[in-house]
Amino acid sequence: MRTPSRRRRVDVVFWLGMAWLTVVLGAAVLAPLLPLGNADDSVKGLTAPIFASPEGLGGAYPLGTNNYGLDVLARVVYGARTSLLVALLAVLIGTCVGGLVGLVSGFVRGTTDRVVGILSNALLAVPPLILLIALGTVLDPSVRSIAFALSLLTIPSMVRLARANTITVAQREYVLAARALGAGRLRLMLREVLPNVVLPVLSLAVVMISVLVVAEASLSFLGIGIEQPRPTWGNMIAEGQGGVMEQHPYIVVVPGICLFLTVFSFNLLGEKAQQRWDPRSAKL
Amino acid sequence: MAGSGTAHLRPDQERALVVDDLVVQFPVTGGTVHAVSGLSLDLLPGETLGILGESGCGKSSAGRAVMQLPPPTSGEVRLGTVELTGIKARDMRRKRARMQLVLQDPVSALNPRRRVKDLVVEGLEIWGWGDRDRDSFVDELLSSVGLDPETVRDKRPHELSGGQCQRVCIARSIALDPDVLICDEPVSSLDVSVQAQILNLLEQARERLRLAMIFIAHDVAVVKNISDRVLVMYLGKTCEVLPSASLEGALHPYTRLLLASVPEASDELPAATGAPARAVELPSPLDPPSGCRFRTRCPLATDRCASEEPVLREVRPAQYVACHHVDESTEEV
Amino acid sequence: MTTDVNAPHVLEVEDLRTVFHTPRGDVHAVDGVSFSLAAGETLGLVGESGSGKSVLGRTVMGLVASGPRTTVTGRVRIGGRDVHALKPAERRRLWGPEVAMVFQDPMTSLNPVKRVGTHLTETLRRHLGCSRTEATERAVDLLRQVGIPEPARRMGQYPHELSGGMRQRVVIAIALACDPRLLIADEPTTALDVTVQKQILDLLASLVAERTMAMVLVSHDLGAVAGRTDRVQVMYAGRTVESGPTRPVFDVPAHPYTDALLASIPRLDNPPHTLLRTIEGNPPDMARPPAGCRFGPRCAFVTDQCREAQPEAAVVPGGRAVACHHPLSRSILEGAGDGR
């Protein structure tokens, strides 16, 4: 009697999270089609009031304006577009590269595996923020190069997970059975091992999205990520520096809440996916 | 006992498979595991050889080494007339497909992400279809192992029972029309009633396809039921080779111990039967005993057993024993 | 069956039902099982996987009890006390002095980082309040009783240093530490080698005789149960299909399932290449058991009556009972007020 209700409560949180993700992703994708205010044209912003207080849905500036007179709602939506684009792109690169390298090194073992192990451990040994700052000073602050820099954060752990799973799967009896049937290496890797490694890797990828959303925000907050006036959640929060937040808390609160809810929801999704697909890492 | 030798081989007959002085060793931390030490066997077409032994006796390692999965440390494996050791990787894969392997745990021997209709024809996908029609061949294969194609075709392994999975595995193995089928404990993870179904299925398949079969198991009664000849292994060595019909007349002390350990539903209440084992511990395959490997548990052991390894010799017609202390006059208890 | 608290029965099980609530629906793993057991008696619970024999063993022990996902109804009395009416803490106090369990896999039932001796002395000190030296003495003595050579040296070893058979002996020694009146052995030899299985079964049989314990031997191995139990209870799909003194049940089975099961075991005296008798089909999905007799869909003698009505256990003289509408060898059932 007790359990079903407890289960339902957990599910409510999960589905609320999924609803939020749908809204954010939907808004981010459809942003150009939505009737939004001025997000990044600071020239036009000159005519608008600065630091206008949030007026609610009916008003001209539902979530207020910032110090350039730019509409905070519009900026939060376009910010989502940038933040999520960067994170998804980085995770995509990281998953493909890391997953493939892990698969090959776990299947082939031997020298390849040792070299890959040393490289990925070396990458893991560098503190991520320092790595990002170093890259940020070298690369130009475009979406593409930030995504590339962030993908470096995901590759080592992707390699590790894919490699560990490949090693376990490669020892399974169905792989032995396929070898007995005469299957060659490529076939074993693609047909027998890969389909059983993809799901745990994907569930880590979902968790990685939330990590990278935060990482991107940190970079933009520090001013080495995407630059103003193009909004991201990180540089929007940074606008609260220098006493602004004390007087106009919504400048920080709005993007902050969006960031928090999005990260939280991606974590819920990732957790659920790991429980379902990768019982081993879910236990950790 | 627990010795080597080739007296039991039959070079004057046409043989489907010959294994000569097979050695399997693999390094572990702290030494080398001597899994199989000089196993020789041969198999006539349509014959079933049962390999009997406890866990750790090297019977599974031997089965896999015959398949070259992985290749043995040394020793020769000849399939028909083709020597398998040292041939090119691609030729090996093709030859290896002439032998097939049925494993102990049928559920884990099937890729969980694929469907039955793809699983059973995996071998044909690799080696080509010839002029067969895929769908009708799948159905034919499934029916031949007693599965209803309609109900199982689109299922995944976890939706089937253990017995059904083992049927799929057998179908997959015989799809390539092999010469030799190596069954590694194919029924030990199954329930009694399902075990009988699978044993009957293997028996029928062997007869229909004229398969030569190696049947590896620890269950004396199961091995006796399905085999023509039984080879008893202990710690990587051969103890005794004999026709399964005369299994109860086994002479080697280890075979006798195995026979005495069989609890049968027709048993009387416990009675002290058979020679009591002296030590219960199985010696480590890292450091097997000198001479006869069974001597540490053998009631007949003498100094000679420690210094000199017994060799298989024909004690009675078609019965080969590797023991210093048995001959045809030895009583059968 | 008597429910008298003063009855000499060590164990009484009455209409026991264990239901697991799973996402796929309710699974009636044990569905109305009754039996009793006197001191010095050994009962064999046999059946295939999914027959509910292990769950029954664990429910009797109280390891499976009512909770969020499980409902247990019926009664289990051990030494007159209803296991499932006790609070969890009180139930735990039964484990050791009243009832103990030996599990299938001796490797996982021992803690890998604790020495053999520690496993034993901890139990002895906690339950019996022994002093350290006294506990050590008794532990060595227990190891000797279960046939472990050099018991004093073994005390300092870790489980992984022992062979499977030795580990199972240690597990048995732990189970015996508090001198239980009832021992539940759940597939105690399944994970062991053939030559060791017999030794362990013989050991259990001799311990039961020496200590006049009662033992429930849960096993899928009919051979193991045949020679070493006084009575046997054959389970199929959560229900008892047949029960009675072991020898008569195995010699002249009355239930078609028992009969078919016995016939499907390969026997040493069969000539090679004997085709075995098989039971067609598979055990039922316990979330959706068939109507009527659960063995009906696989039974060679099935009739409409079997498809409609679930057969009740008919008690017959000779201490046997069979739940079948059309029992085999009617002669042995003659004179039974079977009331069907």
What is the structure about, briefly put?
The complex is a heterotrimer of chains A (284), B (333) and C (340). By secondary structure, chain B is an alpha/beta fold. Chain B has eleven helices and twelve strands.
Relevant terms:
heterotrimer, B: 333 residues, alpha/beta, Rossmann fold, eight-stranded mixed β-sheet, four-stranded antiparallel β-sheet, 12 strands, C: 340 residues, 11 helices, 23% strand, disordered N terminus, disordered C terminus
Tell me which protein chains meet in the greatest interface and how many residues each side has: B-C, 47 and 46 residues
Q: Helicity range of the residues of chain B? A: 25-40%
What distance lies between the first and last C-alpha atoms of chain A, to the nearest angstrom?
29 Å
In round numbers, the mean pLDDT of chain B is: 85
Mass-distribution shape of chain B: globular
Account of the protein in words:
- With 284 residues, chain A is mostly helical.
- Chain A contains 12 helices and no strands.
- The longest helix of chain A is centred in the last third of the chain and has 38 residues, at 185-222.
- With 333 residues, chain B is an alpha/beta fold.
- In chain B, helix 7 packs parallel to helix 8.
- Chain C has 340 residues and is α/β, with parallel strands linked by helices.
- Chain C has an 8-stranded mixed sheet, sandwiched between helices. In chain C, strands 2-1-4-5 form a 4-stranded antiparallel sheet.
- Chain C has a domain at 251-268 and 276-335.
- Chain C has helices at residues 53-61, 88-94, 116-128, 132-145, 151-154, 164-176, 194-211, 222-228, 246-251, 256-263, 304-308, and strands spanning 9-22, 25-38, 42-46, 70-78, 81-82, 99-102, 182-186, 214-219, 231-236, 239-245, 314-316, 320-322.
- The longest helix of chain C has 18 residues, at 194-211.
- Helix content of chain C is 31%, strand content 23%.
- The chains are: A mainly alpha (284), B alpha/beta (333), C alpha/beta (340).
